[in-house]
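Researcher: Re-running this chain for the archive, since the previous output was lost when a drive failed. Same request as before.
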Amino acid sequence: MDTSEEHLLRQAIGLARAAREAGDPPFGSLLAAADGTVLAEERNTVLSDGDITAHPELKLARWAARELDPATAAATTMFTSCQPCGMCAGAIDRSGLGRVVYALSTEQLLALKPGGGFPGFRQDGPALLDEASAVVDGFYT
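Model: Regenerated structure tokens:
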């Protein structure tokens, strides 16, 4: 990571600080073009918006999917204060962003949270394969 990328990552940490000061969880992210120009920035607003999905990474992925063509999205880098969660990672992947640079890993974050992460949930499946396949078959061709 060069000094210009360190500067962008520090900006993301500053957005996390702003989220915390506003009473929200301390996470912030920004999306930069290949030349380092900041295209968009977001902070966590889960509590202030009353929306469990209001993570900055997810908001930026949605913005990129709406506003950027695929080639431009692929040339971007997201700088974020913490490694994206599974929900955000899925959105980032689907939006076609090219790269993510994060400050804290998930493991490091969990070490800072009393009690660790979120409780797991039960998943059962796959089931009704023939019926479910019939609905999807041919859609992606």
